[in-house]
Specification:
Length: 282
């Protein structure tokens, strides 16, 4: 895919990877407010604990819906924000839906660009997964049924957790994941490095070489999702189609949604996206 887009003009790449163009400023503010409001409601309605998963960075995660003496499937939700915005306070909105199906939900923080690199951000997320897997027994998690999902940059990070080659360094099996559902994900970073995103990400050649498109996941069930048609900018459509071609994962295009509100379908158990995640997680 990096070769297909290499010759596109900078102006087109900027447009194709500007998700904000799919909504007005007012809509964007309303949707981000929903992330936070629905997460606050989840914290009021669902049993949850906050855990530090990395002493070096002090990073924490919220864990919803575990029960002593049980081993529940787990969904790890990774927030988006183009690797430079949002946090776990915006990211727990799927927990009530998942908990209603007997599935726990973990929402980790990660450090944000431009203060840290994409390599460090990926490392933060992988440390969160390793901590959850290692401590699964005492947390009430079934370590054989851990699924990752995430939106936009979080879709990239979900795919990065399913990539091969890093697990042994964290004491994990070759593929600790049961499922992976990136939503509106970014799987080849080269086009982003040729766009305005490079202004804050500063991708290196080594980091581009580690794109999920070039080192795709193995031995894990997966699916892809994004908003349909003009609800997603063109680059995100190309990214999901290209990743589906290398993984064999099906692509779900969600009608009447945009890049930012498609992920809120996970708060409603009657939506196709929520049903797909539950089926994958179980």
């Amino acid at each position: 895919m990096q070769h297909d887009e290499a010759n596109l003009p900078r102006a087109q790449l900027d447009a194709d990877y500007t998700a904000r163009a799919t909504v007005t400023d007012a809509e964007f503010g309303r949707i981000i407010g929903q992330y936070r409001d629905l997460t606050a409601r989840a914290q009021d309605s669902c049993p949850h604990q906050t855990h530090e998963f990395c002493a070096e960075t002090g990073l924490k995660l919220d864990l919803y819906g575990t029960k002593p003496g049980e081993k529940r499937p787990l969904v790890v939700f990774i927030h988006g924000g183009y690797w430079r915005a949002l946090d776990r306070a915006h990211s727990g909105f799927a927990a009530p839906m998942l908990n209603a199906h007997g599935i726990a939900c973990a929402v980790p923080d990660y450090r944000l660009a431009p203060a840290v690199s994409i390599t460090q951000i990926i490392g933060d997320c992988r440390r969160a997964l390793a901590w959850l897997w290692t401590n699964a027994d005492r947390l009430g998690i079934d370590r054989t049924r851990i699924t990752v999902t995430g939106s936009s940059a979080g879709g990239h990070l979900a795919a990065a957790m399913a990539q091969p080659g890093w697990q042994a360094g964290h004491g994990l099996p070759d593929q600790p994941l049961h499922g992976c559902l990136p939503v509106s994900g970014l799987f080849e970073l080269a086009p982003l490095a040729a766009s305005h995103v490079q202004d804050w990400m500063r991708f290196t050649a080594d980091e581009l070489a580690q794109s999920p498109m070039r080192q795709p996941p193995r031995a894990v069930r997966g699916a892809l999702a994004l908003a349909a048609d003009a609800g997603e900018s063109a680059g995100f459509h190309r990214q999901s189609d290209a990743f589906a071609a290398v993984t064999g994962w099906p692509v779900m295009r969600v009608p009447a949604r945009n890049h930012f509100d498609v992920i809120l379908d996970l708060a409603d158990g009657q939506t196709d996206l929520a049903k797909a995640l539950v089926a994958l997680a179980k």
